[in-house]
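Record 1 of the preview.
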Amino acid sequence: MSKTRALQLGAAALATAGVLSACSSGTNAGSIPPPASATGTPASSSQGGGEAPSVPSPLPTAALLANPCNGGLSADQVYKLGLAATGTKRQDQTGATCTWRSDTYDANQVSITAVTPNKNGLSDVYATRGNDKYFEPTTVSGYPAVYAGILDRSGGDCSLWVGVTDQLAVNVQTQILDGPNKSNPCPVVERVATAMVQHLQGS
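->
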């Protein structure tokens, strides 16, 4: 196993410790609907060399890398997504991560990780797709992305990678243990990823 893939797997495993249910019951539930352009036509999965589609317009990432809790989502987005106001930041070999708990279901969390060891961004995820339980290219607000993870989604886990530059992919990971979204976690992680891209666009 390559060092790059090991770091990817580490990010997925660590993020699994936390996750969300923002679409469940509660006054804030589902307040940020994904825009019509959030999910586009799946990108080709037969591109040579493990290369992902290029990022059309690189997003500013300095704030995200410095503090993913503030740089990943705004305070208003955190509220509208139904998350607890304060996220927990950590820094390890996979990069900077922020994890938020659901404001409705304490067992549910969502994490945003800027996976800095992978220097080829989303292409590193494409190159190691053989290790994943699922691999589904998509787009998030016009940016190349892929649902890919080493854990099966039946347990409430969903992992979405978004290419914010050609050198940096951000992993948005959710694991829903309670509530109605446990059996269908990916729309939740897509909603969080869409909010993240919108936040970065406004940076």
